[in-house]
Amino acid sequence: MAANTHSLWFTQMIEYDVPPLRQDALAEALVVRSEHLAQRCDGLLSVSIQVSDDGRRVLQLLRWQSRQAWAAAAGSFIEEPFLDLLGEHQARGVNFAAYQTLRSLVRGTDGGLHCQLGSTQAYQGA
Fold first, then answer.
1. ABM domain: which residues (predicted)?
2. What value does the mean pLDDT take over residues 66-85?
């Protein structure tokens, strides 16, 4: 993937395929794991844990300041018991994806969508 020097941030997406009875437990484990990651990695801006209505998937979105911030933190991932986490929650599959965020639209106080400009959280009318 070509790096874009004008990206707002770097998003890492991890989707887990689990038995429905394991969805809630995996989601909770990912929250705890994400909190530990945030304590160690200054470049981690936010984490979102989402679950599917059918109970079979958990999606973890990690938003980093940049691809470089993610790469700097990646060295510590070896310490994470990732394979243990997958086995404990009987994950049948894991999909990874990563994206450079070029634009982000958010609803402003006026009710309209506005383009987010970088990490300053400033907004401009769209």
1. 10-76
2. 82
